[in-house]
C-alpha cells in the first residue's frame, strides 16, 4: 500500500507557473505508474497527466499538453507537475494517484 501527499498549490495570475509535488510512502514506489488528476466543485475528477515506472513514458490531457510537465524522482519517492502558462480554467483541486490510492489534494487557483 502507498500513501500520498500533495503540496505546492496556491494562487497565481494567469500566465504564471506553479510546481506541484507529491510525496509517496512505500518501498515499491518506483514500480507504480503515477498520475495527476484534477477536480472542480460539482464536476467529475479528470485526468491531467501520467508517468510510467520507466521515466520518459508520459501521457497528457490535450488541455494541458505543451504547458504542463510531469516528472518523477524514484530515489526521493516524489512525483512533480510543473505547470506553466496557467489559465483560469486550470483552477481546480489537484490530486496525485498511484494504483488505487489518492492523495488529499492541493488547491490551485488561477486569476484571470
How does this model look, in words?
The chain has 112 residues and is mainly β. Helices cover 0% and strands 51% of the residues. It is built from no helices and eleven strands. The chain has strands at residues 4-7, 10-13, 18-24, 34-39, 46-51, 58-60, 68-73, 78-83, 92-98, 101-102, 106-111. Strands 2, 4, 5, 6, 9, 10 and 11 form a seven-stranded mixed β-sheet that branches. It has a four-stranded antiparallel β-sheet with strand order 1-3-8-7, with no helix packed on it. A hairpin with a 2-residue loop joins strand 9 and strand 10 (101-102). The chain starts with a strand and ends with a strand.
Offer a few descriptive terms.
mainly beta, single chain, 0% helix, seven-stranded mixed beta sheet, 11 strands, four-stranded antiparallel beta sheet, 51% strand, 112 residues
| Count of alpha and pi helical runs | 0
Radius of gyration: 13 Å
DSSP strand tally: 11
Averaged pLDDT: 93
User: Which geometry do the CA atoms define?
Assistant: globular
User: Kindly, what is the distance between the CA atoms of the first and last residues, rounded to a whole number of angstroms?
Assistant: 40 Å
**Could you spell the SSE succession in H and E letters?**
EEEEEEEEEEE
Overall SS class? mainly beta
Largest sheet: 7 strands, mixed
> Low-confidence stretches at least 5 residues in length (pLDDT < 50)?
none
SS strand fraction? over 45%
Amino acid at each position: 500500500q502507498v500513501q500520498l501527499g500533495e503540496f505546492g498549490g496556491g494562487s497565481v495570475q494567469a500566465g504564471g507557473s506553479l510546481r506541484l509535488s507529491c510525496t509517496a510512502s512505500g518501498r515499491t514506489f518506483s514500480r507504480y505508474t503515477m498520475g495527476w488528476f484534477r477536480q472542480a466543485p460539482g464536476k467529475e475528477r479528470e485526468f491531467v497527466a501520467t508517468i510510467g515506472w520507466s521515466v520518459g513514458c508520459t501521457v497528457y490531457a490535450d488541455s494541458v499538453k505543451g504547458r504542463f510537465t510531469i516528472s518523477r524522482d524514484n530515489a526521493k519517492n516524489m512525483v512533480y507537475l510543473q505547470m506553466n502558462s496557467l489559465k483560469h480554467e486550470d483552477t481546480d483541486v489537484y490530486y496525485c494517484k498511484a494504483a488505487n490510492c489518492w492523495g488529499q489534494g492541493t488547491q490551485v487557483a488561477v486569476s484571470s
